[in-house]
Design brief:
Helix content is about 40%, strand content about 25%. The protein has about 90 residues and is α/β, with parallel strands linked by helices. Strands 2-1-3-4 form a 4-stranded parallel beta sheet, with helices on both faces.
């Protein structure tokens, strides 16, 4: 079972991902976060394997969230999502 944390400020996007994941038996959404502070809090509270992290959260840049999650030594993977061209954030 792959446990997922979804961090995005758009409820429609989170709901869409949950619906897609609900169609498979080996993926479960264990937590959702709507901003950077909420993401960091839930990343520490929940047992998750992969986080889907929006790069543009209301209160904190997703890259800053990623740094804080990484510095907490959480044994998980993060997939950063963005609608921006990769050249803007890839570096």
């Amino acid at each position: 079972m792959v446990k997922v944390l979804i961090a995005d400020d758009h409820a429609l996007f989170r709901d869409g991902l949950k619906r897609i994941f609900s169609e498979t038996d080996d993926i479960k959404v264990v937590a959702e976060a709507i901003n950077g502070k909420d993401t960091i809090k839930k990343a520490k509270e929940y047992n998750w394997d992969i986080a889907l992290l929006d790069i543009n959260l209301p209160d904190m840049n997703g890259l800053e969230v990623l740094k804080r999650i990484s510095s907490a030594n959480l044994p998980s993977y993060v997939l950063v999502l963005s609608m921006y061209p990769e050249e803007e954030y890839a570096i």
